[in-house]
């Protein structure tokens, strides 16, 4: 790191848990951010300013006026532009050191798996179950830790699934099959700061995973109710019969993992 | 009686109540007790047979339980039904 970088990250480097070694690990790391909606905005901003060296940003959508209430990567002038390009301009202005790879299409199958495998950590900030299950499956197959966040209305959930640990549960252990109804922020609404709270937590967990510090949300699901301003925690164990990470894995039908979709929420 | 936390999408069934009390020795019995007070509750939670609907997770006393509806509950247990959230 040069003097400017030492100064830029000085408030993190002065933390003994991080130090220069931790900052260097961040600089050498790749984080894959799936979805550049509300969660992806907050998460990618903190990953970039915090010094994660390489961000791979995935979203095929364009900026809509109705996104601006909560998707803090974008300004009014960005309406109609590709989210990846607008996001990149914002993040480069925040921190020109960060290398950005932009993927403005849905990732699927082997391409999704390769992107997950090439990353040190995956941040799932998508807005639909189809993508969430596909990213989870790729995370388990690639052995890349996954920071999962979701938000709607005044409620949110966040957890870490870390397949490097054989005892780790995965997203599928938590919810089983896909829910029949995909509740989206578009259809149900969401209060703006909720995305910032949860996206920031995702960035924090991703940075901890990269640096190997502290205790992550591995094996724990955090539930947040903004209206009541209450946090709850549920302990989560691996489902030994899980078709993605457990014994059911060998028995399940081989199929192509489904597509990711854009994060509008 | 166990305390049951009702997720927002199901609070329409409980008249807006976020927390209700119910009697039963298993999650299934709690759900059936709640269905008597709040018709439609069981249908919202239970899928085929003794399985919880996909996309709903059951938490008893702070742990996600694998046995779902068959999991035992105590008189002072706290039970949550957590619907998966897709939004982001």
Description:
The complex is a heterodimer of chains A (265) and B (88). Chain A is of the alpha/beta class and 265 residues long. Chain A has one domain (3-252): NAD(P)-binding Rossmann-like Domain (Rossmann fold), CATH 3.40.50.720. Chain A has eleven helices and eight strands. An eight-stranded mixed beta sheet of chain A has the order 3-2-1-4-5-6-7-8, sandwiched between helices. In chain A, a hairpin with a 2-residue loop joins β5 and β6 (155-161). Residues 253-258 of chain A have low confidence and may be disordered. Chain B has 88 residues and is of the alpha+beta class. Chain B has a single domain, classed as Beta-grasp domain (Ubiquitin-like (UB roll)). Chain B is 18% helix and 24% strand. The mean pLDDT of chain B is 92. Chain A binds chain B through residues 35, 37-40, 124-129, 132, 149-157, 174-185, 188, 190, 195, 221, 223, 228, 232-237, 239, 263, 265, and chain B through 8-9, 18, 52-57, 59, 62-64, 66, 80, 82-88.
Which regions of chain A are unreliable across 5 or more consecutive residues at pLDDT < 50?
A: 253-258
Q: Number of helical runs of chain B? A: 2
Name of the CATH architecture of chain A: 3-Layer(aba) Sandwich
Share of helix among residues of chain B?
A: 10-25%
Determine the mean pLDDT of chain B. Answer: 92
Radius of gyration of chain B (CA) equals: 12 Å
Order of helices and strands of chain B: EEHHEEE
Instruction: Please name the CATH topology of chain A.
Output: Rossmann fold
Summarize the amount of helix of chain A as a percent range. Answer: 25-40%
Output the strand order for the largest sheet of chain B: 2-1-5-3-4
Q: How many structural domains are formed by the residues of chain B?
A: 1
- Total helices of chain A: the number is 11
SS-derived structural category of chain A: alpha/beta
> What does the largest sheet of chain A look like?
8 strands, mixed
